[in-house]
Amino acid sequence: MHIPVLLQECLSALSPHSGEFFVDGTLGAGGHALEVLERTQPGGIFLGLDKDPSAVENFQSLITGKYYALEKVLVKNASYGSLGKVLESENLPKVDGLLLDLGFSSEQIKGGKLAGRGFSFSVDEPLLMTYDPKDPPLRDVLPTLSEEELIQIIQDYGEERYGKEIAKAVSKEAKAGKIQTSINLVRAIESAVPSNYENHRISPATRTFQALRIYINQELAELEKILKALPNIINKNGRVAIISFHSLEDRLVKNYFRDYCHASSALATPIAKKPIIAANQEINQNPRSRSAKLRAIKFN
């Protein structure tokens, strides 16, 4: 079962009201979006985006047959990085509230409705690891990467101290055509690290899977694209809330938000001065919330 991360904290920061135009740029399993839909009634507009067409179909099935007293409900198979283009093509106004949850949905891993693409390292699946099925799968991309490129990806996006050793093992197996599934990749990673990796606190595959997912889906590039566009697409008094799970993502969000709030003619005001993190109760119920950080600003 999918549990939306920092749900109440997001709703408090964004404060959706009737008649407002809200965008959920990362629909996922729809947990955040359904709550926003309820709160923008009557007369609001809702736009939901996701690169994963399965997530779009799933959300459409959740709202089919239900009545929402809204002016418009739109659901698009598109990246949040293209939000500006979507607003223009749909002749939509500036946005009153934008939510981005940068973590992948729990529905995309073992047992979830959107599983089966190699996001999880605990079950054997085809190694696709892409949100958009039209993108080249990771199993086809890995053999084309040099060992040096893999080192940089694993160290930069995974902050993995055994990046060199893992890259060497993965490169060798991939070029031999032996990495076709998620478990093939796990075995290559495990062969390159000590048996007591991180004192068994996390799987040896955790950081490398994260790094490869960020790389293959161009997640940091998409994030920077939307952050740059915010002044042009967010309405006066509009709110933006972004949940990140990785230090590189959080750093980007933090720096852009700081610049918007501390420019000579400040464009925005922080809703919370420090990142909002999950309470112990939520972490106990939903362990993936442990690494979540929510940052939010309001445009002046």
TrEMBL record:
Record-linked SUPFAM superfamilies: Putative methyltransferase TM0872, insert domain (SSF81799), S-adenosyl-L-methionine-dependent methyltransferases (SSF53335)
Catalysed conversion reaction: cytidine(1402) in 16S rRNA + S-adenosyl-L-methionine = N(4)-methylcytidine(1402) in 16S rRNA + S-adenosyl-L-homocysteine + H(+)
An example Gene Ontology biological process: rRNA base methylation
Highest taxon of source: Bacteria
Subcellular location: Cytoplasm
Gene3D superfamilies: Putative methyltransferase TM0872, insert domain, Vaccinia Virus protein VP39
Binding sites annotated in the UniProt record for S-adenosyl-L-methionine: G30, G31, H32, D50, Y80, D101, Q108
This protein's record includes keyword Ribonucleoprotein: no
GO CC aspect terms: cytoplasm
The protein's enzyme class: transferase
Keywords, ordered alphabetically: Cytoplasm, Methyltransferase, rRNA processing, S-adenosyl-L-methionine, Transferase
Molecular-function GO term, any one: rRNA (cytosine-N4-)-methyltransferase activity
InterPro entries reported for this sequence: RsmH, SAM-dep_MeTrfase_MraW_recog, SAM-dependent_MTases_sf
EC number(s) on file: 2.1.1.199
Free-text function comment from the UniProt entry: Specifically methylates the N4 position of cytidine in position 1402 (C1402) of 16S rRNA.
Entry similarity comment: Belongs to the methyltransferase superfamily. RsmH family.
Protein name: Ribosomal RNA small subunit methyltransferase H
Organism listed in the record: Candidatus Harrisonbacteria bacterium CG10_big_fil_rev_8_21_14_0_10_45_28
